[in-house]
Amino acid sequence: MGASLKPKLSPVAVTTAIGGLYISQSVIGGVTWTGLPAVMRDRGASLDQIGLLSLIALPWALKFLWSPAIERFRLPASGRNRSGSIILIGGLISIVALLAVAFAGPVLSPVTIAAFALTAFAAATVDIACDGFAVENLREADHAWGNTAQVGGAYLGAAIGGGLFLVLVDVIDWRGALVAMSASLALFGLPFFLITRGLAQSGARSHTPSIRAALARPEIRKGLIVSAVYVAAQKLGLQMLSPFLVDLGFSLSDIGLINGMGSLFLGAAGALIGGVVIRLMGARAALLISLGFQIVAFSLFTIAASDPAIIPRWLMVGAALLSSSAMLALGFTALYALFMRWSDPRQAGVDFTLFQCMDSGLSIIGGVAAGQIAEGLGYTVYFGLATAIAAAAVPIIIRLCREV
């Protein structure tokens, strides 16, 4: 890793800033990948059509291509840090694009796809600046709490975008719900802009951020493998969870409450517990605990898919809450701690972005594949395959994360 940069802000200020941004970013993700699939299924869309929504996430998978340019703009060879400017511009674009979707309606029209793609592009660009800022301004001793803010903020945002949003669609309408989501982006993004507005961090910077410099480091190459294995194990079984619950007879309000309350309380709790586990037992232990719970949850979904009467409704709700909220948050808090540890502060936006792009790329592939498998072979095969992949990930994580 390159030489550490001395933080200019207190850890509390940094975690507050990035936590707010992660909330707003996850409002977008919740609407796109949790709220919209449930609304579409409720209105008769097929599972393979819903699976195509994952393509909207392409900017999240490809943002590594423009991350060096964003980092060079954010940290010029001389002059002030421009993180706040990037966040302001990206936030405004996201708000306008979501308002366009509000008036286009909940269908996969060209306008909807283009607006969601633009929102994803803006949000992905903001994320580059946010993650680079976090690594640059947090000491390693504070990484666990920074990751807690990232993941906890993400789950609070998911509670709004994937939970409250569905309730508002049911109670008000699609347009009103999205206008409310747009307002929340401004509200939660404001702290970052205010906190970083006066941040100078001027001076000469000799390092030029690049993808080549990142891939030359063994930590980055190992991190990409860990990210790929862990994300495949964690996320494949969750891609079709909302449509599955719809088909089991849960209403949009039911699913909204599960997603919202789960993210609001269990997701945030999982992130906090993850921070504690990392400090006491290490990141690898947190990853393995999370995987173990996911294997149990996916097994329950497999059984319920074959015969819904076998698994009580309360147990399905509990498994959904734990798998999509608490355990996912715990595991990703640990994974993000590793990402921070393996990133070079001189180009953290590039390094951290590479790890996240592996996450997003596999999520896209997994989302499309999940729709095809669930539609063609049924939920039983789909969740059974997810269980097997999660189990296969355990020995790989044990081997690759020995030192953490």
The biggest beta sheet is recorded as: none
User: What's the alpha carbon Rg, rounded to whole Å?
Assistant: 20 Å
Q: Which structural class is indicated by helix and strand composition? A: mainly alpha
Question: What is the string of SSEs from the N terminus onward?
Answer: HHHHHHHHHHHHHHHH
Q: How much strand?
A: under 5%
Poorly predicted ranges (pLDDT <50, ≥5 residues)?
1-7
What is the overall number of helices? 16
Termini separation: 16 Å
Into which percent range does the helicity of residues fall?
Answer: over 70%
The strand count comes to 0
Shape: globular
If you average the pLDDT, what whole number results?
A: 81
Structure overview:
The protein contains 16 helices and no strands. It is mainly α and 404 residues long.
Quick recap of the structure?
With 404 residues, this protein is an all-alpha fold. It has 16 helices and no strands.
Describe the SSE topology.
Layout lengths: L10 H32 L4 H5 L6 H5 L4 H8 L8 H22 L5 H28 L5 H29 L2 H23 L14 H5 L2 H18 L5 H7 L4 H30 L1 H24 L6 H30 L5 H30 L1 H22 L4
Helix pairs in contact: 1-6, 1-7, 1-8, 1-12, 4-6, 4-15, 5-6, 5-8, 6-15, 7-8, 7-12, 7-14, 10-14, 10-15, 10-16, 12-13, 12-14, 13-14, 13-16, 15-16
